[in-house]
């Protein structure tokens, strides 16, 4: 638990498991963003995690803003595979909310709930972008077609979002 260093503006964190088919969507998005020449000279840390445990807090600690990208399984929202889900700011969720948006057991909401209770100094805002998954049962590094298309779409959305963040904070 530390204070935010104003020199560390933005972290973009991909979460997932690339050998569990669609579960790797968040990581694939971040890998593509990291390769983008239009983002190379900006103060962005691109990171990937193969879990969604407490390590998330270590990866976002010390940044002014965070964008988390994950494969999600949200049954109560009736999303179709490949649909993109966006939470504008996890800091606005009340700690008693317990719904999860992850396909990894304890999800991002649970971790943020824990961090708030534990007094962590979190980035603000913490945006979450997710892609509704279709298949995670096979151990293969291939996304299903709907998810592959959604990854491409989300890369475009996030590049635009990141450039807007930097243009308003210069």
Shape: globular
| Largest sheet: number of strands, sense, barrel closure | 5 strands, mixed
CATH architecture: 3-Layer(aba) Sandwich
Secondary-structure element series: EHEHEEHEH
Q: Helix tally?
A: 4
What is the C-level CATH assignment? Alpha Beta
Distance between the termini: 27 Å
CATH topology: Rossmann fold
Tell me the number of structural domains.
1
Question: Numbering strands along the chain, what is their spatial order in the largest sheet?
Answer: 2-1-3-5-4
Structural class: alpha/beta
The overall average pLDDT, rounded, is: 82
Backbone CA Rg = 15 Å
Description of the structure:
- The protein has helices at residues 25-35, 55-60, 108-118, 145-168; strands spanning 10-15, 44-49, 65-72, 84-87, 126-132.
- Strand 1 (10-15), helix 1 and strand 2 form a beta-alpha-beta unit.
- The longest helix is centred in the last third of the chain and has 24 residues, at 145-168.
- The protein has 170 residues and is of the alpha/beta class.
- It has one domain: HybD-like (Rossmann fold, 3-Layer(aba) Sandwich), CATH 3.40.50.
- A five-stranded mixed sheet has the order 2-1-3-5-4.
Labels describing this entry:
globular, single chain, alpha/beta
Question: How would the blueprint of this fold be written?
Answer:
Elements: E1 10-15, H1 25-35, E2 44-49, H2 55-60, E3 65-72, E4 84-87, H3 108-118, E5 126-132, H4 145-168
Parallel strand pairs: 1-2, 1-3, 3-5
Antiparallel strand pairs: 4-5
What would you say about this model in short?
The protein has a single domain (10-168), classed as Rossmann fold (3-Layer(aba) Sandwich). It is 31% helix and 18% strand.
């Amino acid at each position: 638990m530390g204070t935010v260093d104003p020199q560390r503006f933005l972290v973009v964190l991909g979460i997932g498991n690339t050998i569990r088919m669609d579960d790797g969507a968040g990581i694939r998005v971040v890998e593509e963003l990291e390769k983008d020449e239009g983002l190379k000279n900006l103060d962005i840390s691109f990171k990937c995690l193969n879990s969604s445990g407490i390590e998330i807090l270590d990866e976002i600690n010390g940044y002014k803003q965070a964008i988390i990208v994950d494969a999600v399984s949200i049954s109560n929202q009736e999303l179709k595979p490949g649909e993109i889900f966006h939470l504008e700011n996890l800091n606005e969720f009340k700690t008693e909310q317990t719904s999860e948006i992850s396909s990894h057991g304890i999800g991002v909401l649970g971790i943020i709930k824990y961090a708030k209770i534990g007094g962590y100094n979190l980035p603000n805002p913490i945006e979450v972008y997710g892609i509704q998954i279709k298949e995670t049962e096979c151990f293969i590094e291939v996304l299903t077609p709907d998810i592959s298309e959604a990854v491409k779409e989300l890369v475009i959305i996030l590049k635009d979002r990141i450039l807007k963040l930097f243009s308003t904070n210069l």
